[in-house]
């Protein structure tokens, strides 16, 4: 019973740490894209039904 809870807690902690660590390179890449090109670093979806 506790093994499922421990695994879930471990998954959440590892995911949160990975998000924090990967946010730095993603931010650097977004800044480099913004400096290099005229358009936005992130493009919105333009799907019109």
Summary keywords:
0% strand; mainly alpha; 49 residues
What would you say this structure looks like, in words?
The chain is an all-alpha fold and 49 residues long. It has a domain at 6-36. It contains one helix and no strands. The chain has one helix at residues 2-36. The longest helix has 35 residues, at 2-36. It is elongated, with a radius of gyration of 18 Å. It starts with a helix and ends in a 13-residue tail after the last helix. The relative contact order is 0.08. The mean pLDDT is 87.
Any idea what the radius of gyration is?
18 Å
Estimate the strand proportion.
Answer: under 5%
Helical fraction equals over 70%
Structural class: mainly alpha
Count of DSSP-assigned helices: 1
Number of DSSP strand runs: 0
Low-confidence stretches: none
Report the order of strands and helices. H
Straight-line distance between termini: 47 Å
Global geometry: elongated
Task: Please give the largest β-sheet.
Answer: none
The mean pLDDT is 87
């Amino acid at each position: 019973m506790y093994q499922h809870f421990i695994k879930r807690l471990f998954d959440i902690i590892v995911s949160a740490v990975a998000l924090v660590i990967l946010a730095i390179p993603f931010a650097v890449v977004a800044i480099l894209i913004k400096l290099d090109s005229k358009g936005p670093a992130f493009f919105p979806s333009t799907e019109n039904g």
